[in-house]
Write a structure and sequence with these properties.
Elements: E1 2-6, H1 10-22, E2 26-30, H2 33-42, E3 47-51, H3 59-69, E4 75-79, H4 84-92, E5 97-100, H5 105-121, E6 127-129, E7 132-135, E8 140-143, E9 146-148, H6 152-163, H7 171-178, H8 189-201, E10 207-210, E11 214-217, H9 232-235
Organism: Nocardiopsis aegyptia
GO molecular function, one term: transcription cis-regulatory region binding
Protein name: Two-component system response regulator VanR
Length: about 250
């Protein structure tokens, strides 16, 4: 289990991290909201432990971000406030559990294990296609047995493509399913993300481009067409091969 702990009190953060490590739970600690969002953007976590009163984006704002991302990461909130209204507002933001300070570290560990078991009961199936193995629950990707480290967005795009089972997925659909509702429909984010994803997965290219239509997982030879920036998906113009291989 890998947990993100967002706690601005150094003594408390160290105590939580040490307790989790003793319980064989990997823990990354963020002392402020900005660091927490940065970690969430580059790593996948089984559970997020959020102090509601951290500086920068607050624990409440981080909770909203996690819920909006669609990652399904369970949230355990920490707070010194013990009023029912405070707890109700936390659950309203998407918290799955609540712990009031001060608390026993052993209780925190027990609650985290309970959340992990609950999540495991709704664990989505592992997806496999064309040498790719994608585990939505653990947020892990393997190609031909080799672990591939992906950013959160790259993982989201690949999950959509793998779920399509070789079918073509348009750039507009990828934008709708892998980005939030505030995404600019005229952005080149899809092209850039697919280009980076190809490089991470390595050759032979497994993501094929259908010019003017979209992208798909190549279930045949595994030598998917690489149209560089992928502009042909949105304009219908076929660009030269290999533009993003460098």
């Amino acid at each position: 289990m890998r947990v993100l702990v967002v706690e601005d009190e150094p003594y408390m953060a160290d105590a939580i991290r040490d307790a989790l490590r003793l319980a064989a739970i990997a823990a990354d600690v963020a002392g402020d909201g900005d660091t927490a969002l940065e970690l969430l953007g580059t790593n996948s976590y089984d559970i997020a432990v959020l102090d509601r009163d951290v500086p920068g984006p607050s624990g409440d704002e981080i909770a909203r971000h996690i819920v909006a991302s669609g990652s399904g990461t369970p949230i355990l909130m920490l707070t010194a406030a013990d009023r029912l209204d405070d707890k109700a507002s936390g659950f309203g933001l998407g918290a799955d559990d609540y712990l009031t300070k001060p608390f026993e570290l052993r209780e925190l560990v027990l609650r985290l294990r309970a959340l992990d078991r609950r999540r495991a009961r709704t664990r989505p199936p592992v997806l496999e296609i064309a040498g790719l193995r994608l585990d939505p629950f653990r947020r892990e990707v393997y190609r031909d047995g080799r672990y591939v480290a992906l950013t959160r967005k790259q993982f989201a795009v690949l999950e959509v493509l793998v779920t399509a089972e070789g079918g073509v997925v348009g750039a507009e659909e990828l934008l709708e399913r892998a980005w939030d509702e505030n995404a600019d429909p005229f952005t080149n984010a899809v092209r850039i993300t697919v280009s980076g994803l190809r490089k991470r997965l390595g050759e032979p290219w497994v993501i094929a481009t259908e010019p003017g239509v979209g992208y798909r997982i190549d279930t045949g030879s595994g030598t998917g067409t690489d149209s560089g920036t992928g502009a042909g998906v949105e304009t219908g113009t076929h660009r030269s091969e290999g533009a993003d291989r460098g």
